[in-house]
Fold:
Amino acid sequence: MQLPVSPFAIVVVIVGAVSVHLAASQAVSPDAAVERVGDYVERYYSRAQSIVVDENVIIQPLALDLRVDGFARRLTYELRVEWNPEASEEDSPAKVTRQLLAINGRPPRAGQEPECLDPRSTSPEPLAFLLPDRREKFTFKTAGLGRVGDRTAMMIDFRSVRPEEPKVEWKEECVSIDLPGRARGRIWIDPETSEILRLDESIVGLVDIPVPAKQQRAGGSMFMTIERADSTIRYRRVPFRDPDETLVLPSSIDTLTIVKNSGSPRTRISQTFSNYRRFVTGSRIVQ
Structure:
């Protein structure tokens, strides 16, 4: 069976920092913990507007055994978060915006179009689902204590309440797919410092996506099947000066997607973040 020519691109979340005030000796209900997280996310987004970071992306095709198969594509972006608390329910109140700096170590050519699996220039910031007016679509429960590296972590599991229709957007031979209502995962929180140490996320069940006739190849399937879409986000403390401040921000994101009958059936995307910096704007009155 021949495969469709259309590679698959799934939206990958980039997460900021969350902090909640939890004590290791206290029994905290999931509702109380998530409420504190949501309050902090609002404050975090207001600060994150002034932070810029370099994002290095490696897009690597994989073989059947998930080993490296072929050449990787390497991209460098300048990334920041935009925050609009007045956004409608259909729009994300926090978005990640990217400016492409390099492709495989070289500056991009003028007018050069992104490839199918390249990150979007604008994408939702995923922690928005923890905001007070967004989290009714998820259920939460505590999952005990675990460890992340050498640190003890409180674990909170989340899961979508009900699946929604996939949002599919075709552009020539590329397809972008959002899967609302199909997420499950775990948040790992330091119970003493309230720092988020890790976020795991995956999809619930297999998802079939119809392939339009003009994107099908002779003998190819009429459907793509999303079998896996797993991501792990790890965090680290980032100090800033003038004024002094330490924030917990993404260190890396690793994503694995397996999509049967697609042009990119198995892909690993690695994102690392470095050179965090704040930018400060000012104004003055000119007589």
